[in-house]
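Q: Convert this sequence to structure tokens.
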Amino acid sequence: MEVFDQSALKTVLMFGDLMISLSIFTFLGYAVQVISFRSRTDKYKFVSEKESGALKVTAVLLAGSISFYSFVLMGLSINISETYQYFFVGLFGLIVGSTLGYGLWSFLSFYHPFILEKRLKDIRFHPMNSPVTGKPMMLLNETQEDAHLSQEMIEEEDNFSVDYDVWVDEESDFKVIERYNTRFHPQICESCNFRTLTEKKQEIIEQPQLHQKGVLRKHYECSYCGHREHKDVEIASWDEESKYTMYEKDIVEIPANKISKSETEEAEMY
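A:
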């Protein structure tokens, strides 16, 4: 019986080691991927889309390993030998792991979004140096940047689907326009004040016509308190849509003295 007991505990310990190794590998793999990005827009997109999921997987694996380790420690402390003891020791390990897992999951679901938002701001607004002069570039405010954006870009911002940042080198007139997709970022719920309000679906209330704008309704739901709300935004009319070229790139680098305000939307993107 003693040989069997030791063999069982070693097997459980092996599963614990496997899960904590996977937990560490998942976290380090995510961290290495984040460090590897040179473009801030690519890093911003990756962090906003992947960080929450990567940390939750890490938390589940960590909680599982703690559950197995708790089983082994309790088994050794009471010198486990009887079948009923395995049941209660297993139950103890499950409770410990589940409690830790629930705590980590709750933290990542309800409090981590605030940390993530600050992290994304640090990535997005990190000072930028001009590749022309090497000097710090100036980030324009919402009013100033409109002079450098196409009408379509401005409408995208008004519809809360994307944000554009315009950085200008005043000495060389070199500028960089960065595009950030903020559509799926959790917002602060007005009911519970957690950053857990996310967009669930969209529906067109009024179809756009040739010379008439349409209306798109966005539905939001809070994952914490269940609060629901919706926001209506305008959709460009057909003739407006045909005027503008859709910008698919994240970064536009333009010498400002080469492009006038009216020509900005025709700039080559690379």
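The chain has two domains: 2-124, 138-266.
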